[in-house]
Amino acid sequence: MPASEPAAAVRAVVPLSRWAVLRRLHFYAGIFIGPFLFIAALTGLAYTLTPQLDRIAYGHELYVDQITESKVPLADQVDAARAAHPTGTLTTVSVLDDPHATTRIAFSTPELAADEKVDTVYVDPYTGQVRGTLTTWYGSTPTTTWLDSFHRTLNLGDLGRNYSELAASWLWVVALGGVVLWLGRKRKYRGERGRALVPDLQAKGVRRTRGWHASVGLWITAGLLVLSATGLTWSQHAGAHFSTVLDAMKGHAPALDAGLTSGHHGTGTAPTGEGLPAGVSLEQVIRAAGPMSGRTDITVPADASTAYVVAQDDGVWPVGFDQVAVDPRSGEVTERVEYADWPFLAKLTKIGIRAHMGELFGIVNQVLLAALALGLLCVIVWGYRMWWQRRPRRATARLGAPPARGGWRALPVWFLAIAVPVTIAVGWALPLLGLSLLAFVVFDLLAGAFRWALRTPGPRPVD
């Protein structure tokens, strides 16, 4: 054998070992993380329908029957809401730029405050009549709140948040890993290069299933990466690390100072929580803040040293999240924070979250999210079907075996020197990914040791 042949053989083995490691990782992630991804996709699909569900379930509270030329003053609407809800502290008055929408007036109670919820009274702005009361969470109706919590936590509290974070942590790994494996396979078989984006409808059995699994996965990869990244930004563990990075890069949205200086203190009656403070009307407060699209939330001053906070909440492109502090006595603007002045990372985070929630592009955003969820559900089912189809045809092995192990042994030192620190860094940034990956490695080593022990012959009997 020529001297160059062993070197060539080694060079051929190294790429194969990388593929083997990637296939085994993709296999383990699909088998063990697949159920979490399936639940996240299924609950996310349900959440995309919340605007329509709200209109069906709470149309009477959310919308008026008839639009007229004039509206009842906001102070009178607050009085009507207080009469219908005599307990609790008045916190927020919300008006929408939709002429069909009711005014939402929120009252906080100690029982609800622990869950960050309020009682919201819905008032017809044209008649001043109360149309109903709902317990809401950051403006969300009970149905939307329940589906949101089910998607994030399975309604299990902080413990349940680990499921969605685990799914989001692995989503980008399995998506990118699958793309690399599929494109690598198409590159290997030159005649199939043009079929990467479409399944081979002539194929049978596992090849047909793999074609659908990979082709649909390729189409939805970009969307899955967005969902993974945006989902992790407000997760429990990875989200805390992300917030630390934003602190270091000064990427948080600037906070509005609603405190009144001595020069702005008046002599009017201090707020009591029963109603509005003495001074300018809410209409004057809104005019002082300037025109705002979407929903405008007016936070009532908690005491005599606090201003009204007028906050824009418009999650539809082009978005707007301006905030303005207005003196309740004089109607002067004491501070303004405009969305246009936010740091780039803060803007990107806000836009990403609203896209994840299906708001950014309205009904188009909902349809795209629903398509992504359905696509992911199908890809997961096809993945498990491949596992079943690859099972050996004998009674002793009812499930498909994982790809061959031991590929990492052929990896070059320089590759491991890069891969190991990068993996540790990613594991620190995404703790649940790091811990579950470590669990996979331990499981794989134990499984290998167990199989080796079964295959090792025992000592021969002594004659």
TrEMBL record:
Which superkingdom heads the taxonomic lineage of this protein's source?
Bacteria
Give the matching Pfam families.
Answer: PepSY (PF03413), PepSY_TM (PF03929)
What residues does the PepSY domain cover? 71-133
Is Nuclease set as a keyword in this record?
no
Question: Where, by residue number, does the polypeptide cross the bilayer?
Answer: 27-49, 166-184, 216-234, 367-387, 408-429, 435-454
Which keywords belong to this entry?
A: Membrane, Transmembrane, Transmembrane helix
Whether Membrane counts among this entry's keywords is: yes
Quote the InterPro entries the UniProt record gives.
PepSY, PepSY-ass_TM
Give me the ranges of the annotated region Disordered.
257-276
Matching entries from PANTHER family are given as: IRON-REGULATED INNER MEMBRANE PROTEIN-RELATED (PTHR34219), PEPSY DOMAIN-CONTAINING PROTEIN (PTHR34219:SF1)
Q: What is this protein called?
A: PepSY domain-containing protein
Q: Which organism is it from?
A: Cryptosporangium phraense
